[in-house]
């Protein structure tokens, strides 16, 4: 018997204090939790159940889909479409929005998700994750459109991620701090293990894909150069570097011990007319909400991500997030122009 708080108990307790809460939201989060448990189970079994490798298809952004991308997307849809809480869903793996079928009741929420983020790591058995965000459906639940999804990150009702690592974890915010839960495989429940997660304001660790260095813009180049100069440089301290190529794992590290994660704008993306690498609605916004709720910062460079007005469902943006003082410094370099 465990005596810990399960994620469901935790959510019910949190919602109890909200006037007018009907239980819909609690029940929706519960379905998301179930989907993440199913995905965790598939990821854990890997090659044993034949889920590794390519699916032989591409998503809307022209990226090759892994079998697990497609399977995890199906799991998320099946778990969340039937209960009557959602009007529509949108996913990294689907070109268009997914309005809830009329065979089920349509509800007042919208769900966006990246079912399996960092999927280039699946076949090499490195951590991957699921990212999600919940919005209200502004146009009413009857005929949801893509436009209903185009809301600034500040409008999010909740956001979270599941990390499938050495242990599986769920990290959640409903705008009242950030809490982390660890999956107890024996009883199939996420148990509260990391209450009130907070990102230290200072850090000596940064994460960036340095293979893009020659394309970086001057503010990012300046920041990284100063970190690399170490004790002898203007920062007067040594920095460490990490790159997992799995945003969920990077954000989780930052929530645990601080740090900065950057997938910034660069000259190569600019040439291609691409707004960034990571997607605003189901990667950047939910992660920004979590990071800000844990006391960190999250910007494109000069701007706060959560204040961006989305223009497209699969819009990409530059992302710089993590320890507050470092993010402010990088924002300052952008505002100064380099
Ligand atoms: P994905 O959603 O296709 O998996 O791409 C997003 C991932 C992030 O998790 C990670 O930070 C980044 O892509 C890694 O990119 P790169 O391979 O360029 O280093
Ligand atoms: Mg992704």
Automatic annotation (TrEMBL):
Segments traversing the membrane: none
Chain positions recorded as Mg(2+) 2 binding sites: 114, 117, 283
Disulfide bond listed as a keyword: no
SUPFAM superfamilies: Carbohydrate phosphatase (SSF56655)
Binding of Mg(2+) 1, residues: 92, 114, 116
GO cellular component entries: cytosol
Record key words, sorted: Carbohydrate metabolism, Cytoplasm, Hydrolase, Magnesium, Metal-binding
Any one GO molecular-function label of the UniProt entry: magnesium ion binding
Domain Fructose-1-6-bisphosphatase class 1 C-terminal: start-end pairs: 199-333
Localization annotation: Cytoplasm
Cofactor-binding details, from the entry: Binds 2 magnesium ions per subunit.
Superkingdom of origin: Bacteria
BP terms from Gene Ontology: fructose 1,6-bisphosphate metabolic process; fructose 6-phosphate metabolic process; fructose metabolic process; gluconeogenesis; sucrose biosynthetic process
Domain Fructose-1-6-bisphosphatase class I N-terminal: 6-195
Catalytic activity: beta-D-fructose 1,6-bisphosphate + H2O = beta-D-fructose 6-phosphate + phosphate
List of residues binding substrate: 117-120, 209, 277
EC number: 3.1.3.11
Main localisation: cytoplasm
Names of required cofactors: Mg(2+)
PANTHER family cross-referenced by the UniProt entry: FRUCTOSE-1,6-BISPHOSPHATASE-RELATED, SEDOHEPTULOSE-1,7-BISPHOSPHATASE, CHLOROPLASTIC
Family (UniProt): Belongs to the FBPase class 1 family.
Quaternary structure annotation from Swiss-Prot or TrEMBL: Homotetramer.
HAMAP family noted in UniProt: FBPase_class1 (MF_01855)
Descriptive protein name: Fructose-1,6-bisphosphatase class 1
